[in-house]
Amino acid sequence: MQPRNMSMSGVVDLAAVKAAQEAKAKAEQARAEAARQGGGAAGAAVSPSSLVIDVDEAGFEREVLQRSTEVPVVIDFWAEWCEPCKQLSPLMERLAQEYNGRFLLAKIDVDANQMLMQQFGVQGIPAVFAVVAGQALPLFQGAAPEAQIRQTLDQLIQVGEERFGLTGLVVDADADAQQAPAAEAPAGPYDALLEAAVRALDAGDLAGAVQAYRNVLGDDPANTEAKLGLAQAELLQRVQGLDPQQVRKDAADRPADVAAQIAAADLDLVGGHVEDSFGRLIDTVRRTAGDDRDAARVRLLELFEVVGADDPRVTSARTALARVLF
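The structure corresponding to this sequence follows.
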């Protein structure tokens, strides 16, 4: 496959005034704060090994979108079976080390992350994209020559610096050698209760799992593991005993029935149809008002807890919900 899209002409889309000003102001504020604290840089120094990261759908928002406000993030879509990927990926990793923090390389296995592949419109691999200040653009597809890749990276870095104030990461060359093995964390005060909740889930004792998670949250309302576990256990408890065919028929026959749409959204999520579940409830919020709207909105927020705040599907659905509400 021949490389294409080596031009950076698509970068003009990144120059939207509002996005550029906000991103640049954020970067400048971070650098100023670090300078006041005596750090002299926008963030703590990173190790050379952290310049190349493996990213999945769950960590995409944190590791790509958020990091792209500090440094251009270059995404390498690859797969184990892809022969051209075996030529390009080592080259991209070497360049990430050589550029020493001027860009971050995120590697995404398309076999394990089909949703991200679809969101970026990847038609073939290897495919390389960039995200700058939250804005995505294609760079090239195929195993391109090193000279062309360098030229593209230089242009990308220039855009990030001039339009968004992204000066890259500070790299500590000795950080990898200095890192000591992490000590094993001592057992927390709620580990036994959390383990009991998991055992109850495995045994099908949903009521027992719900109670165990609630016991933890009664003492520690911010316990992330317990909140996630409770949301999952309550979802399974709600769909237990439902007739899926009847629930879906009711939802299709009565689109204005909020309870029917909520039940169908629960089943969608349990069945792995995350976008369908979120979309159904967002549409319900859009069509309703008052208590009905609030019921659909609250259930949607509960389902966000089940999937996890870091999941990009939750991020997209939150944006869509905000548009409907405001």
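Residues 17-36 form the longest helix (20 residues).
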